[in-house]
Amino acid sequence: MAARPSRPNGQQQAGKVCQFKLVLLGESAVGKSSLVLRFVKGQFQEYQESTIGAAFLTQSVCLDDTTVKFEIWDTAGQERYHSLAPMYYRGAQAAIVVYDITNTETFGRAKTWVKELQRQASPNIVIALAGNKADLSAKRAVEYEEAQAYADDNSLLFMETSAKTAMNVNDLFLAIAKKLPKSEPQGGGGAAAGRSARAGVDLSQPSQASKSQCCGN
User: Where is this region: Disordered (predicted)?
Assistant: First the structure.
């Protein structure tokens, strides 16, 4: 049976629904799409086709009496799509910057994305750094302590993840959900803002994302 997002309390219903736009950024082939696929559908595909433009998906997690619905934009990592990135992170309340722990160049690129978000994205955006492919730790090129120190210096959430084994994938999204402000209703502007520019495959399953995937344990 497919893994599902964490449910801290197992409640059947949540009293309030908050919607947040979340964008994934990072170099090509670091596993952004694999992380999203693992989080949304509990699946992993060894050979994932490169995202073209961006793909849009939705998934929800439950926190106490609140359902947090993520509108997820999985962006392409290829350099030729870089100019499109602001269209997807503009107005985003959260971002996950992904690098491959076996590739130091992707970590350097992740730092560039963090700087760009700090400079151009929403001032209160929650930024998480994900060191993906933790299942390949024998080939590690980026030390955990180095990434943690960088995350601390830049006030980022940080976890090493593995889309293949599901290590820390749900925990990462749950940690982001906990940091997002839930005092004000969040509109669906995130999806609307990027929908007209959608260039990838829509992998979302609206009928399941907010029902079977949340709280219904």
Answer: 183-217
The residue type found at 188 is G
Containing 17, the helix (H) or strand (E) segment is strand 16-26
Burial of 115 per CB tally in 10 Å (0-12, 13-18, 19+): exposed
Give Rg (Cα) of the chain.
16
Render pLDDT for 131-152 as a digit per residue (tens, 0 to 9): 999 999 999 999 999 999 999 9
Distance CA 140, CA 134 (A): 8
* Among 171, 154, 161, 157, CA closest to 137: 161
The answer to whether 184 and 38 have CB atoms below 8 angstroms apart is: no
Assess contact for 96 and 24: CB atoms under 8 A: yes
Nearest to 165 by CA among 61, 44, 59, 47: 44
Cβ(72)–Cβ(200) below 8 Å? no
Spatial contact of 128 and 35, defined as CB atoms under 8 Å apart: no
**Tokens 């302590």 appear where?**
145
Q: What is the DSSP letter of 170?
A: H
Are 200 and 53 in contact by the 8 Å Cβ rule? The answer is yes
Which residues make Cβ contacts (< 8 Å) with residue 152, sequence separation at least 6? 158
16 or 151, which is more confident:
151
pTM above 0.90, yes or no: no
Candidates 177, 190, 57, 71; CA nearest to 128 is 177
